[in-house]
Amino acid sequence: MKYYNYENFKNDTNKLIKKVRPLEFEMIVGIARGGLTLAHSMAEGLDIREVQTLRTELYDKTCKREELSIFDSCKFDGEKRVLVVDDIADSGETLDAIMKHLKSKYSDIEFTSAALFYKKTSIYEPDFWINEANEWVEFFWEKDFKEG
Amino acid sequence: MKYYNYENFKNDTNKLIKKVRPLEFEMIVGIARGGLTLAHSMAEGLDIREVQTLRTELYDKTCKREELSIFDSCKFDGEKRVLVVDDIADSGETLDAIMKHLKSKYSDIEFTSAALFYKKTSIYEPDFWINEANEWVEFFWEKDFKEG
What we know:
Two copies of one chain form a homodimer.
Chain A: E1 2-4, H1 6-20, E2 27-32, H2 36-46, E3 51-60, E4 66-72, E5 81-89, H3 93-105, E6 110-118, E7 128-132, E8 137-139, H4 140-143
Helix pairs in contact in A: 1-2
Protein backbone atom coordinates (compact mmCIF):
# COMPACT_ATOMS: atom_id res chain seq x y z
CA MET A 1 0.00 0.00 0.00
CA LYS A 2 1.26 3.43 -0.94
CA TYR A 3 0.60 6.40 1.36
CA TYR A 4 0.00 9.39 -0.89
CA ASN A 5 0.89 12.46 1.14
CA TYR A 6 0.11 16.13 0.62
CA GLU A 7 3.43 16.85 -1.14
CA ASN A 8 2.76 14.08 -3.70
CA PHE A 9 -0.73 15.50 -4.19
CA LYS A 10 0.52 19.04 -4.61
CA ASN A 11 3.04 18.08 -7.28
CA ASP A 12 0.64 15.88 -9.24
CA THR A 13 -2.24 18.33 -9.03
CA ASN A 14 -0.04 21.06 -10.47
CA LYS A 15 0.82 18.71 -13.37
CA LEU A 16 -2.87 17.98 -13.91
CA ILE A 17 -3.70 21.69 -13.86
CA LYS A 18 -1.10 22.31 -16.60
CA LYS A 19 -2.59 19.55 -18.72
CA VAL A 20 -6.20 20.70 -18.57
CA ARG A 21 -5.66 24.49 -18.53
CA PRO A 22 -5.84 24.99 -22.35
CA LEU A 23 -9.44 23.70 -22.38
CA GLU A 24 -10.78 26.64 -20.34
CA PHE A 25 -13.47 25.07 -18.19
CA GLU A 26 -16.21 27.12 -16.56
CA MET A 27 -17.10 24.75 -13.76
CA ILE A 28 -15.64 21.83 -11.84
CA VAL A 29 -17.72 18.91 -10.59
CA GLY A 30 -15.96 16.99 -7.83
CA ILE A 31 -16.99 13.42 -7.16
CA ALA A 32 -17.67 12.98 -3.43
CA ARG A 33 -15.84 12.22 -1.42
CA GLY A 34 -12.53 11.27 -3.07
CA GLY A 35 -12.51 14.06 -5.66
CA LEU A 36 -13.34 16.99 -3.39
CA THR A 37 -9.91 18.18 -2.28
CA LEU A 38 -8.72 17.81 -5.88
CA ALA A 39 -11.74 19.80 -7.11
CA HIS A 40 -10.93 22.62 -4.69
CA SER A 41 -7.22 22.68 -5.54
CA MET A 42 -7.80 22.63 -9.30
CA ALA A 43 -10.44 25.36 -8.98
CA GLU A 44 -7.88 27.55 -7.22
CA GLY A 45 -5.17 26.79 -9.78
CA LEU A 46 -7.43 27.30 -12.78
CA ASP A 47 -9.28 30.26 -11.21
CA ILE A 48 -12.70 28.66 -11.53
CA ARG A 49 -15.25 29.83 -8.98
CA GLU A 50 -17.99 27.30 -9.60
CA VAL A 51 -17.50 23.96 -7.88
CA GLN A 52 -20.30 21.46 -7.36
CA THR A 53 -20.38 17.86 -6.19
CA LEU A 54 -21.83 14.53 -7.27
CA ARG A 55 -22.15 11.43 -5.17
CA THR A 56 -22.66 7.76 -5.92
CA GLU A 57 -23.71 4.88 -3.72
CA LEU A 58 -23.65 1.14 -4.20
CA TYR A 59 -26.91 -0.53 -3.28
CA ASP A 60 -27.15 -4.19 -2.48
CA LYS A 61 -30.09 -5.47 -4.47
CA THR A 62 -31.39 -8.26 -2.21
CA CYS A 63 -28.68 -10.90 -2.75
CA LYS A 64 -28.35 -10.11 -6.45
CA ARG A 65 -25.68 -7.82 -7.94
CA GLU A 66 -24.98 -4.37 -6.53
CA GLU A 67 -26.30 -1.31 -8.32
CA LEU A 68 -24.72 2.11 -8.54
CA SER A 69 -26.97 5.07 -7.77
CA ILE A 70 -25.98 8.62 -8.72
CA PHE A 71 -27.06 11.52 -6.51
CA ASP A 72 -26.92 14.50 -8.82
CA SER A 73 -27.78 17.90 -7.36
CA CYS A 74 -25.78 19.80 -10.01
CA LYS A 75 -27.26 22.99 -11.39
CA PHE A 76 -25.91 24.27 -14.68
CA ASP A 77 -26.58 27.73 -16.02
CA GLY A 78 -25.22 28.16 -19.52
CA GLU A 79 -21.86 26.46 -18.97
CA LYS A 80 -20.29 24.96 -22.11
CA ARG A 81 -17.29 23.10 -20.71
CA VAL A 82 -17.30 21.33 -17.34
CA LEU A 83 -14.42 19.40 -15.76
CA VAL A 84 -15.30 16.29 -13.72
CA VAL A 85 -12.61 15.23 -11.24
CA ASP A 86 -12.02 12.21 -9.04
CA ASP A 87 -9.00 10.90 -7.17
CA ILE A 88 -8.68 7.56 -8.96
CA ALA A 89 -10.19 5.48 -11.75
CA ASP A 90 -9.81 2.10 -10.04
CA SER A 91 -12.51 -0.26 -11.28
CA GLY A 92 -13.65 2.76 -13.27
CA GLU A 93 -17.31 2.00 -12.66
CA THR A 94 -18.04 5.22 -10.79
CA LEU A 95 -16.48 7.53 -13.38
CA ASP A 96 -17.93 5.53 -16.26
CA ALA A 97 -21.46 5.75 -14.85
CA ILE A 98 -21.13 9.42 -13.93
CA MET A 99 -19.76 10.50 -17.33
CA LYS A 100 -22.51 8.61 -19.15
CA HIS A 101 -25.13 10.13 -16.84
CA LEU A 102 -23.87 13.70 -17.25
CA LYS A 103 -23.42 13.50 -21.04
CA SER A 104 -26.90 12.08 -21.51
CA LYS A 105 -28.71 14.35 -19.01
CA TYR A 106 -26.98 17.59 -20.05
CA SER A 107 -26.27 17.01 -23.71
CA ASP A 108 -25.47 20.69 -24.46
CA ILE A 109 -22.45 20.62 -22.17
CA GLU A 110 -19.04 19.17 -22.99
CA PHE A 111 -17.81 17.11 -20.04
CA THR A 112 -14.15 16.18 -19.61
CA SER A 113 -12.75 13.94 -16.88
CA ALA A 114 -9.52 14.14 -14.91
CA ALA A 115 -8.04 11.97 -12.17
CA LEU A 116 -4.75 11.65 -10.32
CA PHE A 117 -4.56 7.87 -10.72
CA TYR A 118 -5.65 5.43 -13.39
CA LYS A 119 -5.50 1.67 -13.14
CA LYS A 120 -4.92 -0.13 -16.44
CA THR A 121 -7.73 -2.59 -15.60
CA SER A 122 -10.28 0.26 -15.18
CA ILE A 123 -13.25 0.05 -17.54
CA TYR A 124 -13.00 3.83 -18.01
CA GLU A 125 -9.92 5.89 -18.86
CA PRO A 126 -10.13 9.53 -17.72
CA ASP A 127 -9.41 12.10 -20.44
CA PHE A 128 -6.52 13.32 -18.28
CA TRP A 129 -4.61 11.40 -15.63
CA ILE A 130 -1.15 11.57 -14.03
CA ASN A 131 -0.12 8.27 -12.41
CA GLU A 132 -0.73 4.65 -13.16
CA ALA A 133 -1.88 2.88 -9.99
CA ASN A 134 -0.10 -0.43 -9.52
CA GLU A 135 -0.91 -0.91 -5.85
CA TRP A 136 -3.52 0.29 -3.39
CA VAL A 137 -3.26 4.06 -2.88
CA GLU A 138 -4.06 5.51 0.54
CA PHE A 139 -4.78 9.21 0.04
CA PHE A 140 -3.78 11.58 2.86
CA TRP A 141 -7.40 12.66 3.39
CA GLU A 142 -8.35 9.05 4.14
CA LYS A 143 -5.77 8.76 6.92
CA ASP A 144 -4.94 12.17 8.38
CA PHE A 145 -8.33 12.96 9.95
CA LYS A 146 -8.98 9.72 11.81
CA GLU A 147 -7.01 10.79 14.86
CA GLY A 148 -9.86 12.09 16.97
CA MET B 1 0.52 37.67 6.50
CA LYS B 2 0.47 34.15 7.86
CA TYR B 3 0.98 31.19 5.52
CA TYR B 4 -1.26 28.39 6.78
CA ASN B 5 0.28 25.14 5.58
CA TYR B 6 -1.11 21.64 5.34
CA GLU B 7 0.32 20.57 8.72
CA ASN B 8 -1.43 23.51 10.47
CA PHE B 9 -4.63 22.59 8.66
CA LYS B 10 -4.37 18.92 9.59
CA ASN B 11 -3.90 19.67 13.29
CA ASP B 12 -6.69 22.25 13.46
CA THR B 13 -9.14 20.19 11.42
CA ASN B 14 -8.66 17.26 13.79
CA LYS B 15 -9.44 19.61 16.71
CA LEU B 16 -12.57 20.83 14.90
CA ILE B 17 -13.66 17.24 14.21
CA LYS B 18 -13.39 16.41 17.92
CA LYS B 19 -15.49 19.46 18.82
CA VAL B 20 -18.37 18.76 16.43
CA ARG B 21 -18.40 14.94 16.57
CA PRO B 22 -20.93 14.63 19.45
CA LEU B 23 -23.60 16.38 17.33
CA GLU B 24 -23.80 13.55 14.77
CA PHE B 25 -24.37 15.35 11.49
CA GLU B 26 -25.79 13.60 8.44
CA MET B 27 -24.46 15.95 5.78
CA ILE B 28 -21.77 18.57 5.29
CA VAL B 29 -22.25 21.68 3.15
CA GLY B 30 -18.93 23.24 2.15
CA ILE B 31 -18.87 26.87 1.14
CA ALA B 32 -17.06 27.23 -2.18
CA ARG B 33 -14.30 27.65 -2.63
CA GLY B 34 -12.61 28.23 0.73
CA GLY B 35 -14.53 25.59 2.67
CA LEU B 36 -14.18 22.70 0.25
CA THR B 37 -10.97 21.03 1.41
CA LEU B 38 -12.20 21.40 5.00
CA ALA B 39 -15.57 19.88 4.03
CA HIS B 40 -13.82 16.86 2.50
CA SER B 41 -11.45 16.37 5.42
CA MET B 42 -14.19 16.66 8.04
CA ALA B 43 -16.43 14.29 6.06
CA GLU B 44 -13.62 11.70 6.14
CA GLY B 45 -12.96 12.22 9.85
CA LEU B 46 -16.64 12.14 10.81
CA ASP B 47 -17.50 9.37 8.32
CA ILE B 48 -20.16 11.42 6.54
CA ARG B 49 -20.75 10.47 2.91
CA GLU B 50 -22.94 13.37 1.84
CA VAL B 51 -21.07 16.53 0.93
CA GLN B 52 -22.61 19.34 -1.08
CA THR B 53 -21.49 22.87 -1.90
CA LEU B 54 -22.88 26.40 -1.77
CA ARG B 55 -21.43 29.41 -3.49
CA THR B 56 -21.80 33.16 -3.05
CA GLU B 57 -20.91 36.03 -5.31
CA LEU B 58 -20.67 39.75 -4.73
CA TYR B 59 -22.44 41.81 -7.35
CA ASP B 60 -21.63 45.43 -7.96
CA LYS B 61 -24.96 47.19 -8.13
CA THR B 62 -24.20 50.03 -10.55
CA CYS B 63 -21.95 52.20 -8.39
CA LYS B 64 -24.04 51.65 -5.27
CA ARG B 65 -23.26 49.09 -2.57
CA GLU B 66 -22.36 45.49 -3.40
CA GLU B 67 -24.91 42.74 -2.94
CA LEU B 68 -24.28 39.14 -1.97
CA SER B 69 -25.96 36.46 -4.09
CA ILE B 70 -26.22 32.86 -2.91
CA PHE B 71 -26.09 30.02 -5.44
CA ASP B 72 -27.79 27.16 -3.67
CA SER B 73 -28.00 23.83 -5.49
CA CYS B 74 -28.30 21.82 -2.27
CA LYS B 75 -30.71 18.91 -2.21
CA PHE B 76 -31.83 17.61 1.15
CA ASP B 77 -33.64 14.34 1.65
CA GLY B 78 -34.78 13.87 5.22
CA GLU B 79 -31.59 15.10 6.91
CA LYS B 80 -32.09 16.51 10.41
CA ARG B 81 -28.64 17.91 11.24
CA VAL B 82 -26.36 19.52 8.65
CA LEU B 83 -22.90 20.99 9.25
CA VAL B 84 -21.93 24.09 7.23
CA VAL B 85 -18.18 24.69 6.96
CA ASP B 86 -15.99 27.51 5.72
CA ASP B 87 -12.31 28.33 6.14
CA ILE B 88 -12.75 31.69 7.90
CA ALA B 89 -15.36 34.06 9.28
CA ASP B 90 -13.57 37.28 8.31
CA SER B 91 -16.12 40.03 7.76
CA GLY B 92 -18.63 37.26 8.49
CA GLU B 93 -21.02 38.47 5.80
CA THR B 94 -20.85 35.27 3.74
CA LEU B 95 -21.52 32.90 6.63
CA ASP B 96 -24.16 35.20 8.11
CA ALA B 97 -26.09 35.38 4.82
CA ILE B 98 -25.74 31.65 4.14
CA MET B 99 -26.87 30.55 7.60
CA LYS B 100 -29.89 32.88 7.44
CA HIS B 101 -30.73 31.60 3.95
CA LEU B 102 -30.46 27.91 4.90
CA LYS B 103 -32.38 28.22 8.17
CA SER B 104 -35.21 30.11 6.49
CA LYS B 105 -35.40 27.97 3.29
CA TYR B 106 -35.09 24.58 5.04
CA SER B 107 -36.71 25.23 8.40
CA ASP B 108 -37.01 21.53 9.31
CA ILE B 109 -33.24 21.10 9.36
CA GLU B 110 -30.90 22.13 12.15
CA PHE B 111 -27.86 23.88 10.65
CA THR B 112 -24.63 24.31 12.60
CA SER B 113 -21.58 26.23 11.39
CA ALA B 114 -17.87 25.53 11.80
CA ALA B 115 -14.77 27.37 10.64
CA LEU B 116 -11.02 27.17 11.20
CA PHE B 117 -10.64 30.92 11.80
CA TYR B 118 -12.80 33.59 13.35
CA LYS B 119 -12.04 37.29 13.41
CA LYS B 120 -13.37 39.15 16.46
CA THR B 121 -14.73 41.90 14.18
CA SER B 122 -16.83 39.40 12.18
CA ILE B 123 -20.58 40.09 12.22
CA TYR B 124 -21.15 36.32 12.58
CA GLU B 125 -19.53 33.93 15.04
CA PRO B 126 -19.48 30.29 13.85
CA ASP B 127 -20.91 27.78 16.33
CA PHE B 128 -17.48 26.10 16.34
CA TRP B 129 -14.11 27.63 15.50
CA ILE B 130 -10.48 26.95 16.34
CA ASN B 131 -8.26 30.02 15.84
CA GLU B 132 -8.73 33.73 16.23
CA ALA B 133 -7.46 35.48 13.10
CA ASN B 134 -5.34 38.51 13.96
CA GLU B 135 -3.67 38.92 10.58
CA TRP B 136 -4.35 37.97 6.98
CA VAL B 137 -4.33 34.18 6.57
CA GLU B 138 -3.04 32.70 3.32
CA PHE B 139 -4.39 29.15 3.11
CA PHE B 140 -2.21 26.53 1.38
CA TRP B 141 -4.84 25.91 -1.30
CA GLU B 142 -4.65 29.59 -2.31
CA LYS B 143 -0.90 29.41 -2.91
CA ASP B 144 0.20 25.86 -3.70
CA PHE B 145 -1.59 25.45 -7.06
CA LYS B 146 -0.54 28.66 -8.78
CA GLU B 147 2.73 27.24 -10.05
CA GLY B 148 1.57 26.14 -13.47
